[in-house]
Structures are given as C-alpha cells and as structure tokens.
Specification:
The complex is a heterodimer of chains A (151) and B (176). With 151 residues, chain A is mainly α. Chain A contains six helices and no strands. Chain A has helices at 2-16, 28-38, 57-71, 76-87, 102-123, 135-150. In chain A, helix 2 runs antiparallel to helix 3 (57-71). The radius of gyration of chain A is 31 Å and the shape is elongated. Chain B has 176 residues and is α/β, with parallel strands linked by helices. Chain B is built from five helices and seven strands, in the order αβββαβαβαββα. In chain B, the strands form two sheets. In chain B, strands 5-4-3-6-7 form a five-stranded mixed sheet. In chain B, strand 4 (91-97), helix 3 and strand 5 (117-121) form a beta-alpha-beta unit. Classes of the chains: A mainly alpha (151), B alpha/beta (176). The interface between A and B is medium-sized, with 19 and 23 residues.
Chain lengths: 151, 176
C-alpha cells in the first residue's frame, strides 16, 4: 500500500514537468538564460503552461528555437522580440508594460481605488438626515424613554 | 442615489465578466496583420524537387491554409475549402505542417485536393514564423504580399460567404 502511494506521488511529480531535452551549453550563464526564458514564455497550445512545463509539440519547437537562438549568440531581448513578433504579447507570461498592456498592469490598482472610493463614499456622513427633532418629536421621545425606565 | 451605487458597480462588474466569459481565449490576435507575409522557401508537396517561396505569389491575392493529415479539425473544414477552390476566386496555398509526405499525399487523394499548391513545412519552422499554434489556420494575403486577415481554427459553414469571399473581393479590387 505504501509502495503504491509512493508510486502515485512519484507519477504526479513526474507529470508536473515536461520531459526536458538534454541541452548542451558552453557557459552556465547561457543555460541560466535558457531556463529563465523557457519558464517565461507561454505555450500557445496549453495556455496556462509555460513552454518549460508543456509537452505540446509547439512547446518543444519553441524550446528548440530558444536554444538555437542562444547558441547563435542572440540576446534575451532578441529572443523575446522574435517570439512577440510572431505570437504577440500573449506569448509572454509577464507581458512588457506598454500602452496595450497598461490596463492589465494597472487594473488591480484601479479596482482597489474604485473599491476604496466606494467604501469612502458610503461611509461618509450622510447629509440632510440629521435634522434636529421638532419640539413635539422630542417630547414624544422623552416620554417613550421615561416609560422605558419605569418598566 | 448613493444606495444605487453598489447596484451600478455590480452591473459594471457583471458586464465585464460577461464579456470576459464570451471571449474566446483560443483566439490570439495575430501581430502579423498588416505586415508582410513571413518569407519561406519550401519544397512543393506534389513535386518535392521544386520549391515555392512567398515572393513567387506577389501580385496575386492568396490564402495560406495550414493543414496536416494528423489534424482532426482539418477534416471538418475540408469540404468548405473544396467549395472555395471550385469558385476559383483566389489562389489557395496549403502549408502542410509537420507532416509525413506520404501521409499528406494520401490524405489529399482520399479527401480531394483543394489547393493550387501545397508546400511542406516538415519541421514547423515556417509555422513558427507565421505564429501558428493551432492547426488549421488560414491567412488572407494581398497582392503586395501583406497579411490582411488570420482565421484561427477550422473554417466554419458560412465563413466563406461572411469572411473569406468579401476579403478576396476587396483585395482583388486593390491595386498591386
């Protein structure tokens, strides 16, 4: 039973990451750049995965593309440009701040401000409802309160 | 008035969520629209010793349809492509994406060949250049070689009349 449990767990762990191809890098920085890039690029087929996490054919092709471009001495920005030229900002898990993605970045702050403003408006003292009671009303109130005391 | 504010906020939120739910997350806008069609120079499926490049198609309105024999939804749109080919309104170029030559040719002889010509993108590099992420996809390209429209997923019944024929008509009217 314990063995079965361990087996299932190891299967889950195995599933969590795509089989990453063996890649030969000359410098450790290049390997670092590769790992960073493939975990920042979105797999267009399975959209909630990065190309590092996905086993889709397209993800494999894009990993190959990133590797080859790094081998050719291309910079990180070259590769990001290559991808966004073809797939748009969507290919980046963290899209660059631009006019088009402004709402995406500022949206949460915007909603927070709207929320806080709403709370502030609703909590601010209502106007015009705190008129003094007329003499008649005051007398009535007093008599009700007196009666309450007596009881 | 202030008691209506939450109601308005609720309506606004509901509208946003409704729009969000009805968006198609598979539909990724192509950054290629209004840009020159990416270059390719690929072997022709029927005659692999010959090659075709996008430059050969200058001056013509053409459709690039990405297909493969392993692609299930390609079968769905296939009759519509045949119908389009019959009308002979625009060049239909097939990009045979990551396929085996025999499987691809077998598929065409079994289901019929709507393409004026198909080229082989065996390793999918041209596909990457065109931002292909889900076969089938169809690009409409004008006489100057500029991508004007991209259709992701299979061509559906009605799409020819509503989308493709109007595009072809408009682009045919433009000067090269």
């Amino acid at each position: 039973m314990k063995f079965l449990y361990a087996l299932m767990l190891s299967l889950l762990v195995y599933q969590a990451r795509a089989d990453i191809e063996y890649r030969d890098f000359k410098q450790p920085e290049q390997e670092q750049a590769y790992q960073t890039l493939i975990s920042e690029l979105r797999c267009l087929v399975c959209q909630n995965q990065t190309i590092a996490d996905s086993n889709a054919d397209l993800a494999k092709d894009l990993r190959r593309q990133v590797y080859e471009m790094l081998q050719q001495g291309k910079s990180r920005q070259d590769i990001v440009d290559f991808m966004t030229d073809r797939y748009g900002d969507f290919v980046m898990y963290k899209p660059a701040l631009s006019l088009k993605t402004l709402l995406l970045w500022l949206g949460p702050v915007l909603f927070l401000v709207i929320g806080l403003a709403t709370v502030w408006v609703l909590r601010s003292k209502p106007t015009g409802t705190e008129e003094a009671l007329s003499k008649e009303q005051q007398a009535k109130l007093d008599s009700i309160l007196d009666k309450g005391d007596d009881a | 008035m202030k008691y209506l504010l939450p109601l308005f906020l609720f309506i606004a939120l509901a509208v946003f969520l409704a729009i969000g739910l009805n968006l198609n997350p598979r539909e990724i806008p192509s950054p290629l629209i209004d840009k020159p069609a990416p270059a390719f120079n690929l072997p022709i499926l029927a005659t692999p010793e010959q090659r075709l490049s996008q430059a050969d198609l200058k001056g013509k309105v053409w459709l690039l349809n990405v297909w493969a024999s392993w692609c299930v939804s390609c079968r769905e749109e296939h009759p519509l492509l045949i119908e389009l080919a019959k009308q002979n309104k625009a060049l239909l170029v097939g990009l045979n994406y990551k396929d085996e030559i025999q499987a691809a040719n077998g598929w065409l002889s079994k289901h019929g060949n709507p393409y004026n010509v198909s080229v082989m993108d065996a390793d999918g590099r041209t596909g990457i250049d065109y931002g292909v992420y889900g076969v089938p996809e169809t690009f409409v390209i004008d006489k100057r070689g500029v991508v004007r429209y991209k259709h992701t997923g299979p061509v559906q019944p009605g799409d020819l009349e509503k989308i493709f024929l109007p595009w072809i008509q408009q682009l045919e009217a433009e000067s090269a």
